[in-house]
Amino acid sequence: MAAGLAAGSLGAAELARAPVAILKLDDVSVKTKDQAVSWRWKRVVEYVERKQLKAGCGVVCASLALDNQVYFDWLKAVHARGRIEFWFHGWDHGVHEEEGVKYNEFNHRTYEDQKDRFERSLKLAKEKLGFEFATFGPGGGVGTPSYDSTTVRVMAEVPAMRIWLFPKPLDEEGRKLVAGGKVTILDRVWAVNIESKVGVPDLARLREGFAANKTRPYVVLQGHPAMWDDARFAEFEKIVEFLQAEGCVFMTPSEYVASVAKAGGK
Q1: Which whole-number Å values give the CA distances from 61 to 8, 29, 86, 121, 186, in the listed order?
Q2: What are 145-180's pLDDT values in tens digits?
Q3: Confidence (pTM)
Q4: Domain boundaries of the chain, sorted by first residue
Q5: How far is Cα 252 from Cα 5, in angstroms, rounded to an integer?
Q6: What is the DSSP letter of 10?
Q7: Which residues neighbour 33 within 8 Å (Cβ) at sequence distance 6 or greater?
């Protein structure tokens, strides 16, 4: 698919429908070769599958360099069942500092460094999991942007990267990338989100933002399941139920892009 996607990119018939809901669930990872997959992640995946939803889950790929076969087997099994798309969420989601200023992983690094983070991660995914990532979402953490012009260049060059879960509304740099014909951008509206602050699902905020953005063809909804205790998970369930009541269909990022391509971009 050559065109990027943003609000207003579909026709009148599509705009009459509720937006497609794309769950962007961040930070799948383990820290050691013996660490078990978090029960919070397992709970979210089980819920998505039981409710027959779809979701995208971002993998922090330094975890793939560990010899944690139980973790690899879980990722492969979830992938094979087909309701979760795992995507590239960076090598280490790390914050680095230069001259007293803190930067997110894909901001203010050299071209060689950024490209290596992509290529090393994709190579490990293929080796350890048997599949490549097609979708990218950069990690945040500090107030500086989560990507820069170098990231845009790398996205244009790395063959496997086809979809970008953009951290903000589509901008001029994003439009130029889309015009190259390889990458599709799924942008975000901050008012429509699972969480009101990192790790805190908030139905009231989502309802308000959703009401103001019903003409969008899709909404990308970010959350951090490893931070959800029982009460926060219950709020996430209420958000899903609200979106279902509004008529939203849940898709993975790649599934949504493929569905638009199949419809001829309309």
Answers
A1: 34, 8, 11, 5, 22
A2: 999 999 999 999 999 999 999 999 999 999 999 999
A3: 0.93
A4: 12-262
A5: 15
A6: S
A7: 66, 67, 68
